[in-house]
Design brief:
heterodimer, A: about 300 residues, alpha/beta, four-stranded antiparallel barrel, B: about 425 residues, Rossmann fold, Elongation Factor Tu (Ef-tu), domain 3, 3 domains, eight-stranded antiparallel sheet
Chain lengths: ~300, ~425
Amino acid sequence: MSKNKLTHLKELESESIYVMREVAAQFEKPVLLFSGGKDSIVMAHLAYKSFYPAAIPFPFLHIDTGHNFEETITYRDNLVKKLNVKLLVGSVQESIDSGRVEEETGVNASRNKLQTVTLLDTLEKYRFDAALGGARRDEEKARSKERFFSHRDEFGQWDPKNQRPELWNIFNGKKQLGEHFRIFPLSNWTEMDVWQYILQENIKLPSLYFTHEREVFERDGIWLAYYPFMQLKPDENVVCKRVRCRTIGDITCTGVTISEANTLEDIIDEIAASRITERGGRSDDKRSEAAMEDRKKAGYF
Amino acid sequence: MSGYLDMELLRFTTAGSVDDGKSTLIGRLLYDSKSIFEDQIEAVKAASDRLGNEEVNLALLTDGLRAEREQGITIDVAYRYFATPKRKFIIADTPGHIEYTRNMVTGASTADAAIILVDARNGILEQTKRHSYIASLLQLDNVILAINKMDLVDFSEDVFNKIKSEYEVIAKKLKLKHIHYIPISARDGDNVVNPSDRIPWYKGNTLLHLLETLPVQEGISELPFRFPVQYVIRPQSDKFHDYRAYAGRLASGKIKVGDRVTILPSFTESTVKAIDEGEASLEQAFAPQSVAIRLNDDVDVSRGDMIVKSDNLPSIDANISLLVCWLNHRPLSIGAKYIIRHTTDELFGIVKDVYFKVNINTLENVPDDKTVKMNDIAHIRIKTSKPLRYDLYSENRITGSVVIINESTCETVGAGMIVESLEEQTFSI
């Protein structure tokens, strides 16, 4: 690498930090959506770097489905303490209890979709005008058309056919009353970039991402972690396997990978050799061909 | 370990329509570089079956929205990613229809290079000129003319040479810098990732090899130093009581500790005390790094200001000539006031006049038509509410570009490239 050239990781980092600072400058009340997954952990790291030695100038918001891996919650609480940021939690259970949403039933029941209502309610409650998320364009085909600054109308909806053009590095965060923006600083990162960056920056991750023994069962070719609140079909059996999470979301729809990967280097090798995308294990995307597009239009992450 | 932490990043745009084989080409690049996964291929196979396509339709891989799949057209810019051991690539995949000029301009605005597809059977068409004009307008350093479907013209060297010499005339007229010609068959993969033994007379690079070796970020750190201030970092904590740094991303050039700088618009001078990047302090920084700069003097600096080296100042003027691409269904209105975003600065601008429109199919100027509608490109003059600190777009893509915003709808309605005023204008086409 010659002297005055940035590596791809450095250039991506520089772009994301630029976006974070634009958000702090252009919006009155931004918030960072924190799920406890690796992408939001990278987001937290970038936010820290963007404003150091000042504190991160926005709180974190966790939309809690109530179906979390415990490790995620422990990790989250330690991280916000270390970064000295305020943590807000939007609870899907509360949305269910107050009758805002109805719990899905049946074997494929998931609270993943219900999160949208809790998210929009929470954004409105605190009057947040920009919500930073860790979504990447390489994740899913509907996401490949997403902007860095993604405009949402007063109903929180995304109109993919009528997006604002985004040119050079000029981001237009102007909006009418009641509207808000979703901001995606990691837009240009791939899964591999995220892992390489975690390695380069020596970022600590929850142990879930590394190999561990866990009770799992197979459904439609995907291994799911077993928890007592999950309903099994008659032909499904709980077995013990060495697995790791490739993504971390709501337990009911996060597939785990059979893996012996114990270090970041192992994980990077495993992803390089993998022939399945990371969302290939997400049953929420498999509900229909446009499942992600439909959820995004309604205001999903 | 099979990942590389120090690859370079190349951003390129592809222009063309499905008929030129653009989707097939992108599918081929992704597939042959092993960037497509099994579950993606299976989803595309299933969708192809459902739509009654006999072969696996790679276009379905690249069309993300429901409406696009239903109508078989690309509506919006889609971004795609792949990597080889040498480089990571970002493709801005833009639709080629005439009504989507705004998408091509958007995709090209962040690109280092453009791939323009030509069907070997049809040669240079109006749309080839249109795509080339946009590559020239947005000042892309490298244009790759991919002459596709060579299998359908018997891999004829004569056909290739004829198209090449015809294009050279256009390239000269448009002042394109570096042009590369490659005969390919995207469908069969000739010269895309792997060299073709069916085209023995072609001795040049394959497309992928060319993409891996094109110069990137070249020159941007050699330009004059421009640092638009984004945000002021003031910790207000006991430990960092007197800390004050100006955060931003170097638009161009480089800076080191001790350099003498001038802050615009106040013209205050100071020297660089420190360059911070997170917890680290750097001796120097170069574009496009994001850093925070501390100065030795207590000066007044805020967002929208620009820090430059004292020995090389930008132009400063409130009368600005622009080549503008109009992006909105409401036409440009002469005499109207718009919000102008330039680097991190924001001000008002009034459109004083439209000098001419560009017919991007014939590459001719149309002086008497002053109606600038969506997808039109025009030379206009604006007067801004305070002077802009700028460089010409031809010299600096970041300090030479503006975005025009409608004050009442808040929409982004225009993209402008700063050019010399018409009197000094040498950009003739």
